[in-house]
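Before the break, one more example. Copy the sequence into your notebook; we will annotate it together after we see the structure.
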Amino acid sequence: MFQSKKRKSLNSVIEQIRVDLANNYKDNAVLNLKKLKQETEDAIAAGELKPKEISELTALIEHYENDVKIFKRTY
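Here is what the structure looks like once it is written out:
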């Protein structure tokens, strides 16, 4: 998705959220979602992201927030 060093860091957090949700780790997903929000805010403040990337990340964060809200454990 994203290529620079900062963007690779964001990709890492995004991938971890996906893994957490796929493995029913809601608590970890919530923590990583907070981390993603903070890193995104930091990158925006530092001017490291393009407008298109900002909108993609914002949409992705909203998507994960909804996933966490409706999250149900399967065990």
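The chain is about 75% helix and 0% strand. Residues 13 and 19 are 10 Å apart (CA to CA). Try to locate both features in your own notes.
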